[in-house]
Amino acid sequence: MPAICKDSDLQEGQSRGFELDGHSFFIVRQQGTLYAYRNHCPHLGVNLEWMPDQFLDSDGRLIQCAMHGALFLIESGYCVSGPCTGQSLTPLPCEVRDDDIWIEL
Length: 105
Prior knowledge:
The chain has no helices and 10 strands. By secondary structure, it is mainly beta. The strands form 3 sheets. It has a 4-stranded antiparallel β-sheet with strand order 2-3-4-8, with no helix packed on it. A hairpin with a 2-residue loop joins β2 and β3. It starts with a strand and ends with a strand. The mean pLDDT is about 95.
């Protein structure tokens, strides 16, 4: 489980993408909790972001696929709108230790 960034580098309501050892993933902080997912849309298999570190819709309430607009719940990765409705993003375990965010790939 490698450390990927400082906990203080990810503010409330922000998302951030990472590439590590051939894996693409992102983290979102919502209401003080970290959520990590593989950066892979279940519909087309493409990366989700439309710009670097931009994984959320305009309201910052849902994860949005830039390719076709599918919307996913931040808390579970479950798709609530779009061509992959009913499918989910792949979650990754993460935790904060000594102001570092650690991820399990």
